[in-house]
Specification:
Layout lengths: L1 H6 L5 H7 L5 H17 L3 E2 L4 E2 L13 E2 L4 E2 L4 E2 L4 E3 L13 E2 L4 E2 L4 E3 L3 E2 L4 E2 L4 E2 L7 E4 L4 E4 L9 E3 L3 E5 L2 E4 L3 H15 L1
Parallel strand pairs: 1-3, 2-4, 3-6, 5-8, 6-9, 7-10, 8-11, 9-12, 11-13
Antiparallel strand pairs: 13-14, 15-16, 16-17
Helix pairs in contact: 2-3
Length: 195
């Protein structure tokens, strides 16, 4: 709670994270301190030197999420709780390094992405899946033994939510869904789960 109040003057935790790269040593140190406190309060560790092309979507908040330094995350990434995007730093290990994720990657709760793997664009990683091999574009990774199912069509991995109207998350903002077929599909699935 205290960290949230301290971060508020910066606009968001993501704007504060950008200040961790300041050329002004005082701003850099204060930013890293506040950013670390915010992570601690959320039981998360998203390294200040991890790279996000745009602000990701955390549908359940930034709780219990680990992203190692050097990890690179593309635009419109959806990350659920208890996800690890971690490096391998053992000197004799295969796959040394940090993961690189493409754009529009959807990561289910509890998933683990470990080592210098490359995750393509429009990939879905199932809850509790463990990913330790590269994954091509437009693929789905299911939990258990890493099994990859490649799709011919581009997967729509946007996070949709109902806020009086259907919206989707993209590059740090929610936008109104205007495609009638998507609205109908979402509305039909919502009425099926509420009956």
């Amino acid at each position: 709670m205290i960290a949230r109040l301290l971060v508020k003057p910066f606009g968001s935790v993501w704007l504060l994270k950008k200040r961790c790269f300041s050329k002004n040593i005082v701003i850099e140190k204060v930013s890293k301190l506040l950013y670390g406190l915010y992570q601690y309060e959320n039981n998360s560790s998203i390294a200040w030197n991890s790279v996000f092309k745009s602000e990701p979507c955390f549908p359940h908040g930034m709780k219990s999420i680990f992203v190692s330094g050097g990890a690179q995350i593309g635009h419109n990434c959806v990350i659920f709780q208890q996800v690890t995007i971690g490096s391998i730093t053992l000197k004799d290990a295969r796959g040394k390094g940090a993961p690189i994720l493409g754009d529009n990657v959807y990561i289910g709760s509890g998933a683990k992405i470990i080592g210098a793997v490359k995750i393509g664009d429009n990939v879905r990683i199932g809850a509790n899946a463990v990913v330790y091999k590269d994954v091509p574009n437009n693929s789905v990774v299911i939990s258990g033994e890493q099994k990859i199912i490649t799709k011919d069509e581009t997967l729509d991995n946007r996070f949709y939510s109902y806020h009086g109207k259907w919206v989707y998350y993209e590059r740090g903002n929610f936008y109104t869904v205007t495609d009638k077929s998507i609205i109908d599909s979402l509305s039909n699935s919502q009425s099926a789960t509420s009956s």
